[in-house]
From TrEMBL:
Organism: Pontibacter qinzhouensis
Any Pfam family hit: Ank
SUPFAM superfamilies assigned: Ankyrin repeat (SSF48403)
Signal peptide: 1-21
PROSITE patterns for the chain: ANK_REP_REGION, ANK_REPEAT
Listed PANTHER family: ANKYRIN REPEAT DOMAIN-CONTAINING PROTEIN 39, ANKYRIN REPEAT DOMAIN-CONTAINING PROTEIN 39-RELATED
Name of the featured protein: Ankyrin repeat domain-containing protein
Domain of life: Bacteria
Record keywords: ANK repeat, Repeat, Signal
Residue stretches of each ANK repeat: 19-51, 52-84, 85-117, 118-150
InterPro entries, A to Z: Ankyrin_rpt, Ankyrin_rpt-contain_sf
Length: 172
């Protein structure tokens, strides 16, 4: 009788792991550090991905949840993970204007020059969206202003297109 239930247990075990991953992504989206702590304690996969390649860490950063992002980093989240389109958490922080989060990511080894599927970089995102404090931070942390995207544009080209004079000065 005991042997009968063993195969059934193995059928449901993977479902429990999927549920934990989904729960961890939901907790990261809400910035719920207590739930994140509980799920990580129960062995949830800190680098689990949804169908778009988003990890709990990327979701926490996109939501501006610094404490949750730091907690996930301490649990082993991959700081340079790229989602299905090639975007990273640092690109999200640059796009959203989260300077303090960007600093945290860079302190944990985020690569400023990774390119997404269109060749875009965190510096390009910061430039396009007028996040000039982030432009400074990224340049101070090794962002290469000569990188070109798939359209052959640099961050300087994008700053000029957007009329972002402060970024133009920073990038010259």
């Amino acid at each position: 009788m005991k042997l009968f239930f063993l195969p059934i247990l193995f059928l449901f075990f993977p479902l429990a792991l999927v549920a934990q991953a989904t729960d961890l992504i939901s907790a990261a989206r809400a910035g719920d550090t207590a739930t994140i702590r509980t799920l990580l304690h129960n062995k949830a996969d800190v680098n689990a991905q949804d169908q778009k390649g988003f990890t709990p860490f990327i979701i926490a950063v996109y939501g501006g949840h610094t404490a949750a992002a730091e907690q996930l980093l301490q649990a082993g989240a991959q700081v340079n993970h790229q989602d299905a389109t090639g975007n990273t958490a640092l690109m999200g922080a640059a796009f959203k204007g989260y300077s303090e989060l960007a600093k945290l990511l860079l302190e944990h080894g985020a690569e400023a020059n990774l390119q997404n599927g269109n060749g875009g970089t965190a510096l390009m995102f910061a430039t396009m969206f007028g996040r000039n404090e982030l432009v400074k931070i990224l340049l101070e942390n090794g962002a290469d202003k000569t990188v070109k995207d798939e359209r052959n544009f640099t961050a300087l080209d994008l700053a000029k297109q957007q009329g972002n004079q402060e970024a133009v000065i920073l990038l010259q």
